[in-house]
Fold this protein.
Amino acid sequence: MPNMANINVAVLGDPEFAKELGKKGSVTDFTIYNYKSDQLTAAFMVPTSYPDKLQSLTHVLMMADTVILVVKALNKEIGEFIIALDLLGFQKGLIIFDEYVEKDKFISLVKGTALESFIIVDKAPAEIYPRLAAYEIPKSPVEYVMVDAAFDVKSVGTVVLGVSRGNFAVHDELQSYPEEKKAGVRSIQVHDKDVRNAVPGDRVGFSLKGVNVEDVERGHMLAKPGALQASDMLTGSFKKSKYFSEQVSAGMKMFIAAGLQYRQVDIVEIEGDSITLKADRKVAFAKGSHFLLLKPDGKMRIAGVMTPQ
């Protein structure tokens, strides 16, 4: 039976194609195109500021349930997409080939990566929608909302937009991480309609009480008190990208993409597959999450992936 929950889809390689998939919505460093039918509600997300800003890509990937990768040329951007998708462990996705792409060469490029399990489809919305409608969103071990925008609405108060990774209801008492601010859910909207509950995959709007906009800025995460961790010292396992030629060593300054948090970090210690980082600000995270370790000014910008303890 088709999954009726909302699904968040990263569209990579062809920003114009997203216009055929949905109606244009909000625009920041990523653009959202919304689609709704009886079988499917989807948010198609395009990293608008990519490739100039790497965080535009990481933001979209951290919010995505699945991916549509349009291969128009075997260039540096496609290589970066393959590296990021593989490190983050995307197991399901759709691949669309442009007419003149060397398909065999691409297939050999992704051999041994997560993209091996992606399905090749035609560049036709009518083929794509049913595949997305049948997609089952993996259950998150920890329930949270990843905030990508916050603003004041007259007579309503603080409103946040984000992607739900759990079940939430009006009157829930939550905490805004990495801060320790308590936030009550006054009302919930999904696609501009008032609802009593939000489910995994929903793109939500929460009206909150007890917090100001500064307490729930982009990158913050909303969850039940005690559900998430927050620290500026991060220890965990590290897997280096096989394409990152530089040595990753103690004393280096790099960046991490942790959800929608983009933080500068110092590598305090690295030994084998264990790494310790000191971030310039506290980072909120859920157990089992993945951080991309980045060098935005490098020739190769994605160094690897860290899984915090």
Notes: Helices lie at 15-21, 54-63, 76-88, 103-109, 125-133. Residues 6-133 form a domain with the Rossmann fold fold (CATH 3.40.50.300). Residues 83 and 222 are 29 Å apart (CA to CA). The chain has a mean pLDDT of 95.
